[in-house]
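Researcher: Next entry in the queue.
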Amino acid sequence: MRTTDEKFVVQLTVQQLKEIICEVIATSFTANTLPKYESTATERGKKLTGLRELSKHIGCGVNSALKIKNEGKVPYSKIGNRFYFYSNEVDIALQHTV
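Model: Structure for this entry, 98 residues:
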């Protein structure tokens, strides 16, 4: 009779290990089991393009909006030299910083 304290040693070749790993990946990560996050436009809010739109949304000057962005108080994306913000994400972030 074996107890749970016993340890088993298994010897595998590199090829056998590769096959096991491939099988686990193939069965674990199918399209039905992957978590899906679908953010809708209504969840994220209105898309704000640039610091001028951000400043209008939060009611401050462009320099203040730049400072808020640089301090990491609001989430944003940068594509090229343009900054993009989403109104709901900005509102939530600023509620947590006050």
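Model: Residues 41-97 form a domain with the Arc Repressor Mutant, subunit A fold (CATH 1.10.10).
Researcher: Noted, moving on.
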